[in-house]
Specification:
mainly beta
Length: about 120
């Protein structure tokens, strides 16, 4: 069992900042290794897309559209991943989902999603 609890979404004006958090918990975390933690987003009428990913060793990967504006980080002791979003644009408006990838079989777990709305 894995639970992902997200927080930090909301409404912000263009150019503003938001910080998302996602805390993972559950008995499965004690038996399976975390491969990656990350954030995806889905805008209305569009497919879900990767925003940022961080490996267990701290390597990061970003979508081209957010490079230089978003920063992903994690606290391994707390099994928590963060997404600092700066210089937000209206096109960043979407539901943001936390993702956790576990174990050799690469099981994927998803948060419930948090809405981020950027007004122009």
């Amino acid at each position: 069992q894995v639970q992902l609890v997200e927080s930090g979404g909301g409404l912000v004006q263009a150019g503003g900042s938001l910080k998302l958090s996602c805390a993972a918990s559950g008995s499965t975390l004690s038996t399976l290794r975390i491969n990656t933690m990350g954030w995806y987003r889905q805008a209305p009428g569009k497919q879900r897309e990767l925003v940022a990913l961080i490996t267990n060793g701290g390597r990061t990967n970003y979508a081209y559209s957010v490079k230089g504006r978003f920063t992903i980080s994690r606290d391994n002791a707390k099994n928590t991943v963060y997404l600092q979003m700066n210089s937000l644009k209206p096109e960043d408006t979407a539901v943001y989902y936390c993702n956790l990838n576990l174990g050799l079989a690469h099981y994927d777990y998803w948060g419930q999603g948090t809405q981020v709305t950027v007004s122009s």
